[in-house]
Amino acid sequence: MRPSRWGTVAIVAMVLTSAFPLYWAIVSSFTPEASLFVRPSLIPHVLVTEHYRALFTQRDFWVPIRNSLIVAGTTTVFCVVVGGLCAYALARLRFPGKVPLLGLILAVSVFPQISVVSPLYLLLRRLHLINTYPGLILPYLTFAMPLTVWLLVGFFRQLPAELEEAAMVDGASRLRTIREIIWPLALPGLAATAILTFVYSWNEFLFALSFTLGPERQTVPVAIALFRGQYQVPWGQILAAAVVATAPVALLVLAFQRRIVQGLTAGAVKG
Amino acid sequence: MASVRLAGVEKTYPNGHVAARGLDIDIADGEFMVLVGPSGCGKSTALRMIAGLETPTGGQVFIGDRDVTHLPPQERDIAMVFQSYALYPHMSVRENLAFGLRMRGAAKGTIAERVEAVAQPLGLEPVLERKPSQLSGGQRQRVALGRAMVRDPKVFLFDEPLSNLDAKLRVETRAELARLHRRLGATIVYVTHDQEEALTLGGRVTVMRDGLVEQVGPPMEVYRRPVTMFVAGFVGSPAMNFLPGGVNAGTWKGPAGWSIRSDAGAPADGRAITLGVRPHDLAMTSAEHGEARARVDVVEPRGSELLVHLRLGAQGRGEEVRLIAPPEPVPDIESVVGLHADPQRLHWFDTATGRRVDG
Amino acid sequence: MTRPPLSAEHREARLGWWLAAPAVATILLVALFPLLWTVWESVHLHDLRMPWLGRPFIGLQNYLEAIGDARFREALGHTLIFTVATVTLELVLGCGLALAMNRAFRGRALVRAAVLVPWAIPTVVSALLWRFIFEGRSGIANALLSDLHLVRQPPVWFIQAGLAWVPVILADVWKTTPFVALLLLAGLQNIDASLYEAARIDGASAWRQFRYVTLPLLRPAILVALIFRTLDAFRVFDLVYVMTGGGPGTSTEPIALYTFNTLLQNLRFGYGSALSVIVFAVTFALALGYIRFLGAGLTETRA
């Protein structure tokens, strides 16, 4: 296909549109509160760091960050390990019940989160897990596990089966085949899946909102959404918090762009 | 080295597809056996069952004296060269070659020695540290070969190893494989769909169709005395001409007035009998002589010979027939000629069963 | 012939089940079981503010109440408006973007970044960003509109009913269109270029090429995008909660938010569960409908 002018125009438009709110948020987060709504201008005149400092001195923003890291991190590790084993079995081994299992996983990913909030709430309450880390990680598995399995099945299917057969003929047991052949080749796929799972967990809102009670266990999205000022909405701090909340995932995603795009579209388009 | 035997091997898949219907194949120690047949005939499945990558649903597989039917591939002491080579992409050539020995717990020194011993005759020394993606097709094929050789297995299995190579490389590699067999004296089971490969490489050839063995024998025997119409038509290129007809009162009569007397080679009985004659055994004569007449349709010069397509009958409206002629004289298109079949090279088949009938 | 204790196929099947079991157990425990519990709850009266009432079985009463509940019906309507608007916009814009991106060579990495970052940021953050942009009389949006003289008076987006939809829909479109474009782009790149050449030789105009080559071959990708986006749009929660809280009043309250309020504000678990079940049923019906109607092999497996 010959490159066209319309193509470049569209790309420029898309990049600008995507970038603008982010640019505006970053600029505003460095703008003094007083001038935020007075005369907004695209190029800032004054830059201050008062909002960022307030975040960490007045609001203890470390706490939600720590909470998000623990919850998203644990969910990711658990799902990649357990889901990875399941995905390998689904992609490679023949066993009865495989098709209904895949159907189950697909069906579960269709569940609206709201539909499982109430029983999870009652269950967690009975187990005294409201406002705890396990109390969030457990519900997170609802969406993280199907996601991980789905993505990894796609990745495993792309590995040629003949490699494993060759290894077996060469004398490697199943376990050694996994260790020496599959693991190194699956690593990029596992990494991409881990990142995606982490991003989804980090960004999750509904469960975090429902199953935590106070700042001690709230995750970053909840903490930001519930920012309250004494007299008015503290937009400066909110935006600063937003930048802090977004930076890690944005950087992660940018660093692994190609792998992530591969994973997302391979699974989707093949279907 | 060891012999390989399939006894009554059947394979039916869970979805109902039958890949093997009772295969009896006997491969002697040190023999080069080629399994050949069209797609779907079950040759690859048979190979995989010897390897242990598939388990038969009936029958037994023996390697040497051992019943290996239910043994996993790791325990069979066989080596396999896959169609796609299946080289480990994240390992260097050296590591690829060493893998099998490492899995069996060989000492580091032994591994290094054997890798060198194999790499040298295959010309792989300059590329030992490279990864497969950096090699050419021919080099990759040799690494696959080396990986099999380095383990000194009881049996070598080849699954269409030449199909990914271009024509010239294919011819060269074929010769390499023949040399290899001579040098190692290994038992080789080789699968291909290319009948030419089968004839040139095999010590013996097994022609398969639809999960069954049609014929087994040395290449020349299969070529000269095919026992069914399928084998006759599959082996040999260009394919054999088939002319349906019947015997009546001591003479076989076929299309366009083609007739051959029983004392000139035709069978005596009056069943439906098809005559098979290879293009190399058919010659053009003048229109008055010969057993039939035909009109020249297309002439394909092939350098050392001509492939002539004709249509039976003086009007050229009958069936198509092909023959190989010397490069000169070149016949005129639309000219009417006589056809003469070498009486020593006639094949007769029962039209209904396809089985060979003696003249 | 003797049968060995475990054939290779049996061993494989056992290994398969062992490997898959932990994940299956997790999913059953954490997703399927709660869903069944929700259905169970939905046929009971269960109000956490009035625990002395116990948990009596009341059959389909909650569902009947839902049908008669005006606010519920409105919420359904809001959800439909949101879904239709966002899915249509995202599909059309995404398709256009994908077509344009397919023909441009430069800036691949920039494009990917522009796509991925909006998608990766938390919905909460995106909601806040757009709220900020449209906030008050002098947010940047109003400032631009005024400066460009497109309006006489800056609108109060979040206070005037009906206007609030604009920033909400815009926020969703901003966040998701690039991703839809990416999905469609992958589908486009799977189309063999020689088909277009053949069509051109046959004399087809650009529009006809699009209609007869691109669209049919893009169908699987469009279908996937449609399914995912429709389901996501139908379940929208984060965006609206943070941006408008359902307001002004309840004029932008989607069904998930209404259910949430019923459950965790009003603590009416029985009734809220019934609403949850309805949401689930509609979502599932939509998914099945898409699959059956437009035909996709989403559960294909390797034998």
Structure, described:
With 271 residues, chain A is an all-alpha fold. Chain A has helices spanning 5-29, 50-57, 62-92, 98-108, 113-126, 134-158, 161-169, 174-203, 206-211, 220-225, 235-255, 257-270. The longest helix of chain A is centred in the N-terminal third of the chain and has 31 residues, at 62-92. Chain A starts with a helix and ends with a helix. Chain B is an alpha+beta fold. Chain B has helices at 43-51, 93-103, 108-119, 137-149, 167-184, 195-201, 219-224, 229-234; strands at 4-12, 18-27, 32-36, 58-63, 66-67, 78-81, 155-159, 187-192, 204-209, 212-217, 241-248, 251-253, 259-261, 272-277, 282-285, 292-301, 306-312, 320-325, 336-341, 347-350, 356-357. In chain B, strand 20 and strand 21 form a beta hairpin. The radius of gyration of chain B is 25 Å and the shape is elongated. The model of chain B has no long low-confidence stretch (mean pLDDT 89). Chain C has a domain at 79-254 and 283-295: MetI-like fold (Orthogonal Bundle). In chain C, helix 3 (70-103) crosses helix 7 (165-189). Classes of the chains: A mainly alpha (271), B alpha+beta (359), C mainly alpha (303). Chains in contact: A-B, A-C, B-C. The A-B interface holds A 160, 162-163, 165-173, 176, 180-181, 184-185 and B 51-53, 72-74, 78-80, 82, 84, 86-90, 99-100, 103-104, 147, 151.
Helical fraction of chain B equals: 10-25%
How many strand units of chain C? 0
Q: What is the SS-derived class of chain B?
A: alpha+beta
* Main pleated-sheet profile of chain B: 6 strands, mixed
The dominant shape of chain B is elongated
Contiguous low-pLDDT stretches of chain C (5 residues minimum) are 296-303
Please give the alpha-carbon distance between the first and last residues of chain C: 28 Å
Instruction: Determine the structural class of chain C based on helices, strands and strand pairing.
Output: mainly alpha
Q: What would you call the quaternary organization?
A: heterotrimer
Can you list the strand order of the major beta sheet of chain B? 6-7-8-3-9-10
Which percent band covers the strand fraction of chain C?
Answer: under 5%
Distance between the termini of chain B: 42 Å
**N-to-C order of helices and strands of chain B:** EEEHEEEHHHEHEHEEHHEEEEEEEEEEE
The CATH architecture of one domain in chain C: Orthogonal Bundle
Q: How much is the radius of gyration of chain C in Å?
A: 25 Å
Average pLDDT taken over every residue of chain B: 89
User: Order of helices and strands of chain C, N to C?
Assistant: HHHHHHHHHHHH
Helix content of chain C: over 70%
Percent strand of chain B: 25-35%
| CATH-level-4 superfamily name of one domain in chain C | MetI-like
